[in-house]
User: What shape does this take?
Amino acid sequence: MALVLNEEQRLLAETAREFLQENAPVAALRSLRDSRDTTGYSRDLWRQMAELGWASVILPETYGGLEFGFTGIGVLLQETGRTLTASPLFASAVVGASAILLGGTEAQREDYLPRLAAGDLTLALALEESHHHRPFGSATRAELNGDSITLNGEKCFVLDGHSADTLLVVARSAGLPGDRDGLSVVLVPRDSAGVECQRTLMVDSRNAANIRFHDVSLPSTAILGEPGTAGAWLDTVLDRGRVTLAAEMLGSAEEVFARTVAWLKERVQFGVPIGSFQALQHRASRLQAELELARSVVLHALATVDDNPQQLALSASLAKATLNELVKLATNEAVQMHGGIGVTDELEIGFFLKRARVTMQIFGDTGFHRDRYASLCGY
Amino acid sequence: MDDLELFREETRQWLEANCPPSQRLPNTPEEQYWGGRRGKFASEDSRQWFERMRDRGWTAPEWPAAYGGGGLTPQQGQVLKEEMKRIRARTPLYSLGLWMLGPALLEYGTEAQKQKHLRAIVNGELRWCQGYSEPGAGSDLASLQTRAEDKGDHFLVNGSKIWTTAADRSDWIFCLVRTDPAAKKQEGISFLLIDMDSPGVSTTPIALISGESEFCQTFFDNVQVPKENLVGGLNRGWSVAKALLVHERKLMAEIGSESPRQEVPPVQAAREYLAFADGRIANSQLRSDLASFEMRMHAIALTHMRGFEERAGGQQSTVGLCMKYLGTEAVKEKSELLLAIMGSRGLGWEAPGFTPEELDTTRLWAGSKAMTIAGGTTEVQLNVIARNILQLPQAPKAATES
Assistant: This one.
């Protein structure tokens, strides 16, 4: 399995890096934050990204996709991780698109995927109902009555939830929270009657929402695939999200580490660059070694999606847990090694620290994935 | 089928036909064949396996055939490794000559030196040991004091080397010696090959906390060494040593990823020694520690593969410099984890009352402490990463010189 990028993928990464540094550097996120932008990302930028084909990377050509695979989307996310670029790339083009691809009927795919590929439609997965990740923990009810369904329940930490056109709501038509059986994913236009959306301002200045569904009535065709069967593919959608998010986290860690090493060479104290002190050198070297491990698990996990799907759960948990620990270490070390300036809002390091903390929570923290890895390995 | 797949197919068939079943069981230290004048095979199968591999040059698969090696490409070499691993074939010949001296001779040796030594290494005729560290020169290796004086037709060597692995069972030693005491410390060092049978060479084993004494101190008292045994030129030994250290660290990183010793894998140990409830290890702390360790080993194995793929693709790889540090720290972590899993059964020193595997595990735990010291301490590895990869400035003079 490929653990190195091919020529096409390297080129994609380079193009993306140039584009993002030019059009969406960390300063862009700061300005979205400071202007209290109501969308939370730049629609102009998203249009440009869609024109570059980024919204369609993982989609088959039949639906207007580039069919560039998960290593392709991974290198893009890695680059947006370097610049902390806010966009629907993750929530819509990876998670939303994967849900429709894996769970949708042919008619639903034909309906949604071309619009997703063009960047004309954005999606958000409304999954969590508590403050910890629980893939099958939904209590939200989807009552089927002939040709219609009624949704009732409450979701939190819905990424891009206040800005997406359509919500993918994980709801239950049978069973109890924790059961895999009885789950459905329902396509709910955000402007439907009975949908109450509260944007939550998060520490990373990125988008999330709490959403309440009160007697939301929809045709039964709004259910993705067969009712009650989403438990069979939901975790694969989440795994695809986990590995691409891990790629974004890798990009952030690489960037924050590069900035830290540069600072160690630049900052002079006691008449010498502080990077000449062994106490700091060893900490930087350990981080370098951890980064090497992280690169391997991310590249492996991305390749697993396309080449070896039966190993996806294991490699996704490995990647997410590894990157959770890496971004925590890399951003905390970055702040500490920058010293006083590291805790100022003026320096961009703080943006990386805050984003790291949020990504660690999305789709499973380290404890969650360690537990899952152990269970998958039979102990 | 491409050439490499064809090679894999042929290799698989050949190994299937030629590797005796007894040579597909985990190797124990007692059964390893190290060659040399005093080398003994633990069994007839072990001899046969060694001789068959030797005759194909596959004790040194990637060395040129002209010197007795297998002449394989790095890709073929990797295939052979994978196929051997698949049937769990034992390493036919353990040898510092193969792993360390040979690659250095291929790079720095004269044609005469290559002719004289390489084939003897491939054939396991002579066992080599390494003379680098001295009582006063550990991490600061370049401060070594063993003298080699130019006496016209020979060098006269005086001094002592420490941590010379199995020096008491070796035939030759490759040494770093000081040939110019006036030069800056790295610049007055030469790389010398010394026959251990020379008058004036003596060895004393060193007892370790693991109960083993694989290391010796080796003394040189007016030892005469022919000038032709100088490798890489007078006062140029530091370059040879550095090249060789790279091989040593790679080797130790590989040992880190797959220990050749008979040690229970942690997951298997957990099944044997820990209580389970509903298919899960009941002790949540140990379960979490085990998963955490297994994930790290998984990541290290993937990183080894990535390093290989990068090098095979002609890319510059920064992976190698980190692997000794990562691999050896993981070995120590594994031993600590195993002892935690085994509880008091992991604390025995001698029979009765403990199985041989349990006693091995305890001693390997003590032995593992040397892994992050030998071949360059973890701290020296971190210095190297800081300097060579991160290109951080040198430490202030006071810290390096005092």
